[in-house]
Specification:
This protein is of the alpha+beta class. 16% of the residues lie in helices and 33% in strands. Strands 1, 2, 3, 4, 5, 8, 9, 10 and 11 form a nine-stranded mixed beta sheet that branches. The radius of gyration is 17 Å and the shape is globular.
Length: 206
């Protein structure tokens, strides 16, 4: 993205541990959105990442760009690619996880698989490498839906929780990494004004 595109959108690499938008109360006021809006007051969030997840986020400049980019995300015209390190050796070189998800209300913010009431959710995965010594697998994840915690719950559901996941991992998985090993590595979308294809990349820091 060229510097001239700042008139229309801003591409950011969110660090882990930072909220995408402010939470409730002064203790959760700091966020990527508020930091960016301090410099660009018209910047608007059009999609989010979990606090524990790092990687690419696009913000719109102004109401019209927000509308155009929001439509692109809602209509799934944006391709997303994540990188994760999961527990265990994933057997298949590639596959898909199609499990419906719903909020686990008594244990919020956790989500859970619910075949009766959950919303359809689809994740494609591909193995990048396996490490027998550490019993871990490096995988590429492509969500076709954007449910809350989708990648984390889907990988847990097939028996391969993401390392460092405080919400969904067991003791060994949680302590295997000081951070969640999930990174939004790539986004592909059309420019909201010119229509040119934008291929954005932020290499995983792990």
């Amino acid at each position: 993205v060229c510097s001239s595109d700042l008139e229309f959108l801003i591409v950011l690499a969110k660090p882990p541990g930072l909220l995408s938008v402010p939470g409730r109360g002064p203790a959760h006021a700091d966020s990527l959105a508020t930091r960016v809006q301090a410099r660009f007051p018209d910047a608007r969030i059009v999609h989010r990442l979990d606090m524990s997840t790092s990687g690419l986020i696009v913000m719109a400049r102004g109401v019209e760009m927000e509308r155009r980019l929001s439509i692109a995300f809602q209509q799934r015209q944006v391709e997303k690619r994540y990188l994760a390190v999961v527990a265990g050796l994933v057997t298949a070189d590639s596959g898909e996880v199609a499990l419906p998800l719903i909020a686990d209300w008594p244990n919020r913010p956790r989500q859970k698989v619910d075949h009766a009431s959950g919303k359809p959710s689809l994740t494609l995965y591909a193995v990048l490498s396996r490490n027998s010594a550490s019993d871990t697998t490096r995988v590429e994840l492509r969500p076709h839906t954007g449910r809350s915690h989708q990648l984390r719950v889907h990988m847990l559901a097939i028996g391969h929780p993401i390392l460092g996941d405080e919400l969904y991992g067991d003791e060994a998985t949680r302590t295997a990494s000081p951070r969640l090993l999930l990174h939004a590595e790539a986004l592909s979308l059309n420019h909201p004004v010119s229509g040119a294809e934008l291929d954005l990349c932020s290499p995983a820091p792990f």
